[in-house]
Automatic annotation (TrEMBL):
Keywords: Oxidoreductase. Belongs to the short-chain dehydrogenases/reductases (SDR) family. CDD domains: SDR_c. It comes from Actinomycetospora succinea. InterPro entries: NAD(P)-bd_dom_sf, Sc_DH/Rdtase_CS, SDR_fam. This is NADP-dependent 3-hydroxy acid dehydrogenase YdfG. PANTHER family: DEHYDROGENASES, SHORT CHAIN, ESTRADIOL 17-BETA-DEHYDROGENASE 8-RELATED. One of its GO terms (molecular function) is oxidoreductase activity.
């Protein structure tokens, strides 16, 4: 195997980086030696993570990913600081209210799309031209098991995560010849603040492995996908879900 086939990303941008899966991805990429651009709307939490990550260069950019201009500015700041962008992880997301579809508040539905779908679109619009210019780059978009299945009470979240898969596959086929790979990771239940209010025990038990994921287990898959070890992998939706999407309900 050539050493180039194992190289991690040199400069990586992560959205929703301040906590949960995004923070675990940031820690994983830092451990591999990547310089980091960390984006989140929670400025104090972002600053705390940046302080924690010693040994690599870190640029913290407070920004709301639902705003196209803010995401474009973050990518511009990354290129201004580091001169390149090898990897981007469009991870920021919100769950939205839990309400049956017929009663779902329309404003809340669109707010979820603005963050979960808009955030990915805004990321791709800013990141892809930089990567095309370099002739290489890798993007991972964070979808969910809710991007592959219906989830009662979560039409906005499920619609947004299905849309992330459509964005991922389309960008993957559009930019493959430019040396840019675009993939998605679909976690099942991950123990983070986002899931703290859910009936975690029952849902966790439905996973064939019998438990929720740790955020670091999702990060490991992301770090592999953005590295050159996944050089021939593009357009995939990788479940990292302890077998959840493979299981026949009730027989796991
Ligand atoms: N936790 C799970 O079980 C699970 C499962 C499947 C998919 N996911 C997805 O993984 C991603 C991360 O989830 P998590 O569990 O780590 O969530 P989390 O709530 O722990 O962290 C999300 C981070 O994103 C940031 N964020 C939210 N909206 C933002 C915005 N508009 N602009 C900038 N930053 C914003 C928050 O400040 C927070 O730091 C989300 O896209 C989520 O849908 C999570």
């Amino acid at each position: 195997m050539s050493s180039a086939g194992c190289s991690p990303a040199r400069v990586a941008l992560v959205t929703g980086a301040a906590r949960g899966i995004g923070a675990a991805v940031a820690r994983g990429l830092a451990a591999e030696g990547s310089a980091l651009v960390l984006v989140d709307r929670d400025e104090p939490a972002l600053a705390a993570l940046a302080d924690e990550l010693t040994g690599v260069e870190v640029l913290a950019v407070p920004a709301d990913v639902s705003r196209a201009d803010a995401v474009a500015d973050a990518v511009d700041a990354a290129v201004a600081r580091f001169g390149r962008l090898d990897a981007a992880v469009n991870n920021a997301g919100v769950p939205g209210p839990q309400v049956p579809t017929a009663d779902y508040p329309v404003d809340a539905f669109w707010r979820v799309q603005q963050v979960n779908v808009g955030g990915v679109l805004h990321g791709l619009r800013a990141q892809l031209p930089v990567m095309v210019g370099q002739g290489r780059g890798a993007v991972v978009n964070m979808t969910s098991g809710a991007g592959l299945r219906g989830v009662p009470g979560a039409c906005a979240y499920a619609a947004s995560k299905h849309a992330v898969i459509g964005l991922t596959r389309t960008a993957a086929v559009e930019y493959a010849r430019h040396g840019v790979r675009v993939n998605a990771v679909a976690p099942g239940l991950v123990a983070t603040e986002l899931t703290a209010g859910l009936e975690a025990d029952e849902f966790a038990a439905a996973h064939p492995v019998g438990r929720a994921a740790r955020a670091g287990e999702i990060a490991d898959a992301v770090c592999w996908l953005v590295s050159d070890r996944a050089a021939h992998v593009t357009g995939v939706v990788l479940p990292v879900d302890g077998g959840l999407t493979a299981a026949v309900p009730g027989l796991a």
